Amino acid sequence: MAIVTTERRFPTAGLELDGELTLPDEATGVVLFAHGSGSSRLSPRNRLVAGALNRRGLGTLLVDLLTPDEELKDARTRDIRFDVGLLADRLIGLTDWLAEDDRTGRLPVGLFGASTGAAAALVCAAARPFPVRAVVSRGGRPDLAGPALIQVEAPTLLLVGSEDGPVLTLNEQARNAMTVTAEVRIVAGATHLFEEPGALDTVAEEAGTWFTTHLN
Questions:
Q1: How many CB atoms lie within 10 A of CB 157?
Q2: Are 150 and 178 contacting, i.e. CB atoms less than 8 angstroms apart?
C-alpha cells in the first residue's frame, strides 16, 4: 500500500497553518488531529497513532493549531491553549478544507483529540455533523466543550488512563450527558500522557478499530 505525505500550509479561519496530510492508496476516511495543551503537529504521541491509522488505510491530517507567534505567547501566559473556541474554529476550517479538496472531499472525516484538543474536536463535530462521522478522545477534557457536548452526533470514544483519576471522572460525566453512542474505555496503568510501556499502542489499536468501524 502506497502512502503519500504532503507538507504545506493549510487555510483555516482567516490564516494559514503548517501541517501535513498523509493519504494511503484508496483511503476509506481521513482523521484530523487536534493536539493538546502546549503541543503541536510533531507530537510523538499523535504521530504514533497517526502512523497506525495510515497502516489501516486511513488518511491523517496533523496541523499546528497555533501560529509561531501564538506559541511564543502561550509559552509565557498559557492562555491560548485553553481557548477552546479558537481551536474549534480552526478545526472547523480544516474540516471544511478536507470536504472541499479533490483528494479528500469524498472521504468521511474522523476527529482525534487529546487533552484540550478533544474539547475543540467535540465542538467541531457538533458544528459539522455531516462530514464528521466519528470522534476519539485521548486523555481529553470533554467537559470544556460546553453546550456543544450534547449536540455531537458522531459516535465518540473516550480513552482515559486508569491512573488519571480526575480526568476519568470528567469523561464519565461527559459520556452520561451525550445523546449519541459514546463509550469510555480505560487504559490500564496509564497516566494522563500515556507514557507507560504499551499504553499508546493500546490507544492506537482502540482508535483504529473505532475509526475503521464508523468511517464507512
A1: 23
A2: yes
Beta strands at 15-24 and 182-187: parallel, antiparallel or unpaired = unpaired
The grid coordinates listed for 16 are 494559514
Torsion of CA 92, 93, 97, 99, to 10 degrees: 30
The single residue listed with the C-alpha cell 466543550 is 145
In which band, very low, low, confident or very high, does the pLDDT at 76 lie, cut at 50, 70 and 90?
confident
pLDDT(135) > 90: yes
**Domains of the chain, first to last:** 3-214 (3.40.50.1820)
- Sign of the alpha-carbon torsion through 53, 55, 58, 64: positive
DSSP string, 83-125: -HHHHHHHHHHHHHHHHHSTTTTTS-EEEEEETHHHHHHHHHH
| DSSP 3-state of 137 | strand
Q: What is the Cα–Cα distance from 200 to 139, expressed in whole angstroms?
A: 11
The C-alpha atoms of residue 210 and residue 136 are separated, in whole angstroms, by: 8
pLDDT at position 25 is 94
